[in-house]
Structure formats: C-alpha cells, structure tokens
Amino acid sequence: MNIILLSGGSGKRLWPLSNDIRSKQFIKMFKNANGEEESMVQRVYRQITEVDPSANVTIATGKKQVSTIKNQLGDKVNVCVEPDRRDTFPAICLAAAYLHDEKGVSADEAVVVCPVDPYVENSYFEALKELSDLAAAGGANLSLMGIEPTYPSEKYGYIIPENADKVSPVNTFKEKPDVATAEAYIAQGALWNGGVFAFKLGYLLNKAHELLDFENYYDLFKHYGEQKKISFDYAVVEQESAIQVLRYRGEWKDLGSWNTFTEAMDTEAIGKVTMDTTCVNTHVVNELDIPILCMGCKDMVVAAGVDGILIADKEQSSYIKPFVDAIEQPVMYAEKSWGSFTVLDVQQESMTIRVTLLPGHKLYYHSHEHRDEVWTIVSGQGRTIVDGMEQVVRPGDVVTMAAGCKHTVIADTELQIIEVQLGKDIDVNDKQKFEL
Amino acid sequence: MNIILLSGGSGKRLWPLSNDIRSKQFIKMFKNANGEEESMVQRVYRQITEVDPSANVTIATGKKQVSTIKNQLGDKVNVCVEPDRRDTFPAICLAAAYLHDEKGVSADEAVVVCPVDPYVENSYFEALKELSDLAAAGGANLSLMGIEPTYPSEKYGYIIPENADKVSPVNTFKEKPDVATAEAYIAQGALWNGGVFAFKLGYLLNKAHELLDFENYYDLFKHYGEQKKISFDYAVVEQESAIQVLRYRGEWKDLGSWNTFTEAMDTEAIGKVTMDTTCVNTHVVNELDIPILCMGCKDMVVAAGVDGILIADKEQSSYIKPFVDAIEQPVMYAEKSWGSFTVLDVQQESMTIRVTLLPGHKLYYHSHEHRDEVWTIVSGQGRTIVDGMEQVVRPGDVVTMAAGCKHTVIADTELQIIEVQLGKDIDVNDKQKFEL
After folding, report:
1. Do the bridges between strand A407-411 and strand A382-386 make them parallel or antiparallel, or are there none, so unpaired?
2. ipTM field
3. Closest chain B C-alpha to A189 CA, distance in angstroms
4. How far is B403 from chain A, CA to nearest CA, in Å?
5. Cβ of A311 and B290 within 8 Å?
6. pLDDT 10s per residue in chain A (436 long)?
7. What pTM, to 2 d.p., does this model score?
8. Cβ contact (<8 Å) for B324 and A293?
9. Interface contacts (A, B; CB < 8 Å)
10. A416 contacts in B (CB within 8 Å)?
C-alpha cells in the first residue's frame, strides 16, 4: 500500500508540550510492547508496518518537522517537504507528484491519504488496506473512510451513504453540525468523515494539472509558494460524483486536546511523578528533570516541559488557546536535523546552551557578528574548524570563538557541548553562513 | 528592646520551596509597601524596627542559615550561630551569653525571645515591647505572651492565667489538647502559648550556669556540642513559679503548612503565573523561569522551584512529609556566604553550574581529585588564582583547571561564572581546601 501521512502542526492546544516547532504527534506519550516510550507518529508507523510490512510510507509535512521526523523514524519513511504553507490540495498534489516522479509509483496504483495522528487500533490500518484495494479496483474515483459514530459529535463532518452496506456510494456530505442535527444525521445512517481518501495516483495528478500550474515534482516544489491556497475538499471532493465510502467500526480518536490526549495515555504518569492515593482521574506528563508531586488532584491534567507548566481541570483545558497565545516565552528546546539544543541559562549578557550533535553530523560553517562563544566539550569526539583550522576535540577541550570568527564542529561520535554565548545583543538571527 | 529571634529549620513541610538548606522564613512570599518581594524574616525585621527603631536584634540559628540571613538582612542584625544542634535551652543560653559577653548587654536589661516566623500585625511587636518593659520592671522572673484563642486549636499549648487582667500571674500550662479539651480550656479563659519569653538577662545567665558547664560565651561556643539537650520549657518554665502572662489580642498565624502559608500570601500568584477566571482559592508560587498556566484549579496550592513542583489540594497538602521524604533529588540551588550556585545541567560525566560570587567575596582555595573544571566568566570582574598564579578575569575569559590543580576566584564586582565540571566521579565532597 502507498500511504501519504499528512503531518500538520497541532499549534498550541497541547501547550507546553506542543509548540510551533513540535507538534503533538511527536510527544512521547505511549509505551510500546517493549515498554519503550513511543510518540504518535512512531505508533502509527509501527501499526502500518504491522498490518502491511511492505507499505510505502510518505510523510507530507512542512520544513520545521523534518528533523524531528528523521530523529523519530530515521530513514524508514519518505519525507515530502512543503517549502511553504499552502492548503491541503497543493500539499497532496506535491506528495502525489513526489510519489510519481521521485519514487516511481505508477499512475495506475492506488494511494491512501491519512492524517498522521489517528489514535486507533490496528484494524483501522486493515481498513486502509481495503480502501486502497477499493481504489485500485476502480469502482469510484474517490474512496473515503466513514467511521461509525459513537455519539452525536459536533467536532466532525458527516458522510451520508446511500445504503448501509460496508461499501456504499456517497449520497452527500454535511459540515460539522450541532448536536440535534448530528442526532438526525446519525438516525439517517450517517458516518463521521475521518479525513481519509484513496484514489488512483493518475486521477489526482490529472486534477493537479487541471488546477495548478506545474510540470513535474521538481517544478511544483520550486514554484510551490505561487500555487493557490485551495482545500482538497473544495478542489476535489465537492466536484466529484463517483465517490464511495468504506464503513469502519472501531475505536478512533482525534487527540486534539488535553482531554482526549490523556484518555489515550497508557499510564497516568510519564516522567518523574509522584501521585498520592487521593488523586483521581489525573494525568501527568513531566518532561522536566525535577520531580512533580500531586496530592488530591481530581480530573486534572498536568504537563510540564521546558516551555512551561500547565495545571488544568481536564474540561477547562480545552479553552487553553488564548492563554497560551498571551504567554511570551522563547523556545528553550529544539530538535534539528543535526541533533538538538537546550537553553540552560539566560542572563543579561550571556546565554548558556547544551548542544547535542548526532554522529556524522555537523553545524553550518558560520560566524556571529555580536557575540563571542565558548565551547566546552563534555562528551563524545569530533573536530572543530575555526577560521579554517581543523582540530580534534575530546571531553574537557575548550574552544573560544570571538565575534566574527568562522566556526563549525563535526561529530565523529555523538557530541555534547556546553556553549556559552557572550554579548550585549544575543540574537538567534545573528548568524552568517559560509561554504567550507 | 533586646530581642532574640529563634530561626530554626522548617524541614520539608513547605517542599519544594523549603529544604534542609532553606527554611520557610526565607521564601519571598510577601510584598512590602514599595511592592518589593519580602521574606518572612525580612518582614519580621522590618516590623520590629517600625515599632522600635533602636531595637537590638539577634538571630540565633544554625550554620546552614547564616549566609541566607546575611544575604537577606545584610549586617543589620547580630547573628549568633549554634555550632551544633542542641535543644532550645542551650540555644537561648548561647544567645544570652553572646549578648552579655560580645554585645555588652548588662545583666539587668530585659531580653525578649521570639520565633523568627510569626505572621502578625505590628501590634504584636508593640506587645513584645510591653513584655520587655514588664520583664525589666521585675514583677516576675519570666514574662510570657498569651494569645487570645480564636478557635479550639489542637496545634498549640495553652496557658491558664489566674485572672482575666491584661497581665496576670500564670496558674498552669497545658500541653497540646484535643478539640474538646481545648474548648474546656478556653471556657476557663486559657490563652495560646505563643513561644515568646521575656526575662532579665542575669536571670537566664544564672540558670545557664546552674545547668550547663561553661565560663563565658567563647567557652560555651567552643564546647557547645558537649552540652546536654534540654528544652527551655523543661529547664526553665516548668521549674519557675514567678511567671506572668501578657494577654495579646490580634492576628497571629503560624505558617507551618502550605495551607496556612497561602492564607498569608499578599497575592494569589508570585512569579510567572497565569490563572484563568475559573480558578478559585488557588495560590501559586513559581520560582522557576518558565511560565505556569492554571485553569479551573479549585482550592489548590502550586509551588515550583528548582527542587521540584508541588500541585496539591490545600487540605491534602498537610500530608506532604512522607512523599517528600521518598523523593530523592539532589540540591539544585544553594545560597552560600560568598553568593549562590544553581545546577544547570547534569549529564553522565559532566555537570554545569552557574556560580554567583558577591563583591569582595572569594571561594576557598581548593582542588578536586577526580574532576577537571572549566570556568567561563559571563559577567563582573575579579581575579583567579590557579596553582599560585593570579590573573585578572573579565567576561569572556576562560580558565581551565585540571584535576589536582589548586584554584580560587575573588570577586571585585559581582561575578557570574559558568562552571563545567568534567569527570566520571563528580561528587560534591571531592574537595581539598588549602591556605592561600
């Protein structure tokens, strides 16, 4: 099966563990059968390969997520990077062109498009395989997944099928309704729209060429920012009459808020957490190094990370967004293609960070105009290049770089460096890159 | 007025903001009239001097608190340091001998002894002045403060006065009772024992020489560890018949638990804290650099510091002790006579700390057997001495010290240093001190 996973941003609804750089699908909130911590994207990838070991998995995403995806999944998946943010139709077209032109998937093969973060059982991915087979069989141009509703939700769109068969032509689509309307839809046999589509690759490429202006993947990538913002629903679903829906009955959750997120957690506490016996229905995710003690907490969610600490009544937590928008806090931790950094200390005229550089990786060769830097190697082995001079470095070695001096470091094994930045105007944008 | 403030440890009841090194009287939980944050000990000192600008204030305490007291009160108070932990009688005798032999207070002058942490109005300190005058007048050997009870508390001892006058001879003392007994005491006109005593200095010095073996302050200090552990109540109060009590009617709180502590807070939130409008009766003290967002918290206390994070129902928080005893967490922040240090990062074979050195102060001249160290000066000016070589240091300067090398640093202005420790066996006890 060819599957495109759409990996978008979850924004701030799961603050402080999700932010502009890290989305909820990367939070390690699960434990797999081996007791290892697992993120949503790792869980979904594992489930797909359990169901279809030869699945061809492509993650369509923005630039900011690439390094985290590589860190969590390695080279096991294709990553199709959107150079800009457009809407879902250009994103799916880019991934389709990528599969066709870069990965040699033929126009006749079926492709399934699915969100990266459904919280589901393996049967869901079995259903995706069926959907792929349906699309390949060509009974309709578009094949969707319809999830049997468990309650009259206002959060989802609805699909009204023509009949109650497992596979049925679609009669009509309905936008997110109020509860009473949802009840009426369900009485008519409506299904939740799970945001999953399957089609033959050629079908979508034709649509792409109709609506967008490009020749091939490379060309679309290059001119991606000039494409119109248009949703897949508007561009394709609403124009298409040959649509069928596959009925799926099984657990399916959208972990978009702390409330639903905690319902899916395998344990009540992740990280250094103590809860007394009077805590009830309380979930804690602690990514900090210091312990959290909870006493008498009822129906609460606690999430602590380098960006901040949330302590909320579970129901109340769904109103988080405006509060987080109002909090101004610099990014204290980021994963990068070369490793990660953590801000340890910020003073008036200095900042101290810990840099972890993965084996074989290096920083850009760069300089800073307004700050000096001091590197102390604390573990691993590598080489520094400072103004053209290469030097082997080991734990205890110190490298000082005055403002203006060009420098980089190459990790031969995983390197950890304490970097002290010094200057009156320390700014993340004060960086000039050079060729080595 | 001569006043001795007894400053003991508050242990772990206010974890994570109190620990073995820092007691509750040093937590900055108040705001003074100028909007400056104020600790209990700063508040009490301010109140005493508002009532009696010429008060002679001596704080009797253990070694661990000296640097914090100096940091918070400077040289405005005398500090009488107990070289070991004995009980209250030797501690009060040591402070009495200190006043007599070191500060020239005559045997005929009155001295008031008071806990360092009552949460009270200024009228309380007016009453202490009256108590001092009563003691000086010599109507009894011991003058105590009796607080008019506001409810039948089980937490306090009771004083039964002979009559209802403002000053009355004491009929008898009662240990902490149960509620029913407390009600009966109160019906008889009983007062809470506030732990305040006043006496003529000579009276106490006589008692001291009767029961302890010493010649003068210096001698008592030197042989303090050999003195018997005996409480002031047992040694003095229970043997004395000439005791009077001064009745005090006013707010008086013992902030020994998070519940009472938060009742006394001037604001609901200290530090980077956001609370939504659905929070009710919730208090937050955040000493961390990252923001805390509280939503829908009811009757809760949240306290966050470098040692950990407490999130507790207020009532439940009184059962904190066994949970804190079970948490193993190294000290991440400590105030010292020379300044303070904060642990920024702990890795397998390295530890990074920020050291702040107060102007004019220096570290011991010392070496480490099992670790190398790298200092990066990030602010201030000073001098380092490494294996006898003195060097002026400024921001950006780096000093490397291999294991075995003797080193120190002297602050000419306030110095901030990032210290990276490197080695397989980093241990706070790996330190040899030398004469310079």
Report:
1. antiparallel
2. 0.79
3. 38
4. 11
5. no
6. 999 999 987 677 889 988 766 788 888 888 888 888 899 999 999 999 999 999 999 999 988 788 889 889 988 999 999 988 888 999 999 999 999 999 999 999 999 999 998 899 999 999 999 999 999 999 999 999 999 999 998 888 999 999 999 999 999 999 999 999 999 999 999 999 989 999 999 999 999 999 999 999 999 999 999 998 999 989 999 899 999 999 999 888 878 789 888 988 888 999 999 999 999 999 999 999 899 999 999 999 999 998 899 999 999 998 998 999 898 777 788 877 788 899 999 999 999 999 999 899 999 999 999 999 999 999 999 999 999 999 999 999 999 999 999 999 999 999 999 999 999 989 888 999 998 8
7. 0.79
8. yes
9. 195
10. 347, 350
Q: What do you get for the CA distance between the two ends of chain B, in Å?
A: 42
Residue of A nearest to B307 (CA): A290
Which of B294, B308, B400 is nearest residue A398 as measured by Cβ atoms? Answer: B400
Sheet order of strands, B339-347 included:
B333-336, B339-347, B350-357, B415-422, B372-379, B398-401
How many C-beta neighbours within 10 Å does residue A210 have?
A: 9
Q: Tell me whether residues B374 and A379 touch, CB distance under 8 A.
A: no
- Closest CB to A308: pick one of B291, B297, B342: B291
Closest-CA residue in chain A for B395? A422
Q: Which of A88, A89, A61 is nearest to A77 (CA)?
A: A61
Q: Does the distance separating the beta carbons of A332 and B312 come in below 8 Å?
A: no
CB under 8 Å, gap of 24 or more: what pairs does A211-218 form? Answer: A211/A89, A211/A235, A212/A89, A212/A90, A212/A93, A214/A97, A216/A97, A216/A101, A217/A94, A217/A97, A217/A98, A217/A100, A217/A101, A217/A102, A218/A101
Yes or no, beta carbons of A332 and B420 under 8 Å apart: no
Contact B344 A344 (CB under 8 A): yes
**Does A307 sit within 8 Å of B420, measured CB to CB?**
no
Gap between the Cα atoms of B88 and B95, Å rounded? 11
